[in-house]
Amino acid sequence: CPICDEGGECQLQDTALGFGKVESRYAEAKRVVDDKDIGPLIQT
Known about the structure:
By secondary structure, this protein is mostly helical. 18% of the residues lie in helices and 0% in strands. It is built from 1 helix and no strands. The chain has one helix at 11-18. The longest helix has 8 residues, at 11-18. It is elongated. The mean pLDDT is 76.
């Protein structure tokens, strides 16, 4: 999960590990983005 902020605390990763997948097929580093104020309904 290169851009997710959950940091290993997510149900998708737990499910993948349960099926025996121990490493990601992606080699990208985690992306860091600045927070943007684009309204009260959208959080970045």
